[in-house]
Every structure is written in C-alpha cells, then in structure tokens.
Design brief:
By secondary structure, the chain is α+β, with helices and mostly antiparallel strands. Helix content is 32%, strand content 20%. It contains 5 helices and 8 strands, in the order αααββββαββαββ. An 8-stranded mixed beta barrel has the order 1-2-3-4-7-8-6-5.
Amino acid sequence: MKSKPKSNKLIYLFYIILITISIIYIIFFLKLKFDARKESNLLNTIKIEENNTTENEVLTEEAKEQNVTERMLKVRELKKENPDIVGWIEIEGTKISYPVLQGEDNEYYLNHNYKNEKTANGSIFLNKDYDWNVPSTNLLIYGHNMKNGEMFTDLLKYASESYYKDHPIIRLTTENDDSEYEIFSVFRSKVFYKSETNVFKYYNFLNAENEEEYNDFVENAKKVSLYDTNITSNYNESLITLITCSYHIEDGRFVVIGRIK
C-alpha cells in the first residue's frame, strides 16, 4: 500500500519534467523564429537595389564616368560599417541576396552576422585564403542551409534542371567590380576524409597553378553535375563556387559552380 504514493510522485515528477522540457523547447523555437525575423528585417534594410544608393547625385554621375555602378557604391558604404564585408551576392528570383563577409578564419561567420552579432543564421562568407590583391581563380563562398529558408537554402532547389534554367546567373558585386557568373555545374557531394583519394575535393580548389589544374577542376565539376548545362569554362576565366550543407549523406554538401560571363 505504501508503494502507491511513491509511484504517484514518480509519475508527477515525470510530467513536471516533460512539461518543463516542452516549455524550454517552445521558448527556444520562438526565439529562433524571432531571431530569424529580426535578421531578415535587418538585411532588408541594407538590400542592394538599383537607383537606391546613399551617395549624392554628383558622386553618382562621377562614378558612372568611372564605370562604377550604384551597387558598388553601396558595398563601399557597407564596408564602412564592417571592413569584413567584401561584396554582395544575389541570384535573381531567389531569397539569396546577402552581404558577403571574409574573416580571419572560416569559423567566425558561421554564427555571426555582418554586425558581429551572434546568430544561428551566420553569414554568407568567402574562404579566408582568397587574396584580393592577387585574385585567385575560384571564389569559394559558404552559407548555411536553414530550415527557415534563409541564407543558401535555395541552392538545393538547383537539383531541378528547370529551376536552374529559370535562375542561371549568380551576381557578385564588390566595391571594385560588378560581375555575373553563368552556372555550369550543380551537384551533391560531401566533405571527404583526408585519407580518401581519387575523389573530387572541390572545396580545396582556390587557385589554379596551371592550365592543366584548372581544366581538371572544370572537367570534374561537369562530370559530377546532376545535369548538363552545355556550358564550360576556359583557362583564366574566374570561377565562383557556392557551398551549403545537404543531408543526403553524412557531412553532405550541395554545390553550385559558375564561370564569369
């Protein structure tokens, strides 16, 4: 007879723990949604749009004579807020329209935004080893695959060839350049172990030492592509590689590669 009260206490304790965990989860979920909305609103305030520069009309006319676009001027303004901002990436018709950061390592901007605030979204960021003084062959750019659809989540839609045909161009604007890249390869892959050989370690390709190395990368990228885009790239044409997480396999990645137009 004495075991019943004890049993009831255990059941009561179990429910208390269950309710507490549920409340914590709900609070955490709501915080994530709030942070995501806040992040989205923050980014919307700095979206780069044509005819929306902060510079005065005189400077704009002067800039036009120097082939400086309004988007480039906007990037210059953003760099005053954070020198780590190296550009702005956009794919028309998608949610991808963000500042691109470059830190001293490839870890910081995994969980910090352009205001150096901690955020689950992190930032879109360029590989730390890219040298702007002696431009490398390939712009390796990373971004999270978020459940809320932000950052590089839309890259996964390129698994559909029809989606690629509707969104074939990546636009990257820096303070000194405003370029478009034609997508020529889309594929699923993973991060391989260092010991693995005879695999395509696309994430190691930053600068081609020679034409053979460049062509080897392009050929491998086209070989693993989910479909044929009928586009290739020639030596000395700069490339852009966008990488995000994919859950088709452990340490999976989804990759989109383009060549400059």
